[in-house]
Amino acid sequence: MPRTTRRWMELCMTLDSACEPGDLAIQARNFSVRNRRQTVIGAVTLDVPVGALFVVAGRFASGKTALLLALAGRLRGFAGTATVFGHPLHGGGGQVRHLSALAETPIVNRLDDDLTVERQLAAALVLRQPWYKPLVSRKAVALCLIRVNALVRQVDARAGEILEKSAAGLPRLTGTDRIVDLQPLDRAILGVVVALIGRPRLLIVDDVDTLRDTADRTRAWAALLTLRTAGWHDLTIAASGQDPRELLEILDRVDDDSQPVPTRPVCLLDLDSAEPTLTTLPRKA
After folding, report:
1. To the nearest whole percent, how much of the chain has pLDDT over 90?
2. Which residues of 249-274 are buried (b: 16+ CB within 10 A; e: fewer)?
3. Is the pLDDT of residue 262 over 80?
4. What is the rounded distance in angstroms from the CA atom of residue 92 to the CA atom of residue 220?
């Protein structure tokens, strides 16, 4: 068993295995995902509170992406029951898709390498307009970029507090930069803010481990922890990673004796365990 997985389990054993009571963003019972040949995800039970950071951990090809896409209403072939903000996935997938958004996920919604940042934002704005408004003004795009960078600065400052720094070091997006030329963290941030343009209630961030640099992954996890309190008061985030050790190290800094009970919990589902069970982890406010 990998060392970090053992650390997850040791920490989880000291905590209540159920999330804090209250309104649920995701509720699932005996939920499984299948393709034509095999079961991708075995039956799991989930109670994810509104405002939580829901982390799905597991090795390569363990089914993390399939689970997140299914819960976002983007993937069929599941069994069991599941509701997202009260809307059932069976028969209510349209409402779930309306309430959820995907950050860049290469197999589903890859950013266009040929576009600039401002053109990608423009495309996202057009998608939020009625069909008879296929264009967006330069002014609207410029205002969107200003708001995006204001959000990034706000998250950067709060993430810096978690990391015990003046700022986490998140990059500022420049409208004229081509997406193909962006550094990995810049691209990841762009994918998140494009998804947030529609003000979703559920944000899907798949595979944080695509950020190969350890410092970038640390910044990304710290940003996801703080993003939920940066203006989207009911935002729930579902993210995945093969081995989210940087998030664990951030959570290890929490002093349970001095911190109040968190109102926005961090929930972990480890798909590498024999019986994956949702567990609430401590997190710094």
Report:
1. 69
2. ebbeebeeeeeeebebbbbbbbbbbe
3. no
4. 32
